[in-house]
């Protein structure tokens, strides 16, 4: 019997439906009391394991192949942690007419989180861009963001940031950076196992995100904060995020051309510099915003799905460019960012990061 496949013409990623289902489950059956404590502890452990797998997947050779392209990495970091936050600050003028204070806080937090790792690699490979550079650009962004995102949140969100402190920074480092480094140290012994069981571990990736989403939205339901969001406000948020994504896609593509990057590098810059990571943003929001994390991550969840849909279309169009190189061979599927469920086949030189 043939396996059932998700229709390619449907624009909604099947994993996004699972995310929405998880939000619905949290609305109907939120975790309370001891159950909330268990769910919170499990989500913390799951995210730590997720970043441990990131470390185990990124080979030293791939890192060295991409790290030499320092101009590209600086460009991506500038887009992620300078231009994005500036656009977020510019959106302050939309409060309170178009965005409520809480939604604007979530939007500004969205602009502070790191870039994606696996979806940047997958889309760059699909568009026949510089895959090693995309691997390193996404990985560097995630590592820098572990420290830089909380610092930017403290500076730009101030008292609305939900309690930034040295303790919260330490929690984020322990939950994200330490497991990643442990995965790198143990990669010599477990790298082969991780590569052979990439598909199974991909389910672990995405399952951990579902658990974090359930925990965050359960806490929001218990606190009763969802009554603060109206359909009109959500529509305004979506409109703002459409403009934000369009601006970043245009700046990363045409700006990298003005900087003299070739086609392959421009593709890597566009896909690594225009996206934000749900996998990194969720645990950070849980630490920084506490009980208000559900509203804080709502803009990030919406932007995440939007960027996947738009970038998938762009990557397919880029793959048909006349100046594109030979199409990479498809061997094993590479899952996108853990919060995305569809898979994209990539070339032999690509590993998930």
Could you walk me through the main structural features you see in this protein, from its secondary elements to its overall organization?
With 353 residues, the chain is an all-alpha fold. Helix content is 71%, strand content 2%. The protein has 13 helices and 2 strands; from the N terminus they run αααααααααααααββ. The chain has helices at residues 14-28, 33-57, 60-67, 70-90, 101-110, 118-126, 131-157, 166-196, 198-223, 231-258, 263-273, 278-289, 293-319; strands at residues 333-335, 343-345. Strands 1-2 form a two-stranded antiparallel ribbon. A hairpin with a 7-residue loop joins strand 1 and strand 2. Helix 1 runs parallel beside helix 9. The radius of gyration is 19 Å and the shape is globular. The two termini are 33 Å apart. Residues 328-353 have low confidence and may be disordered.
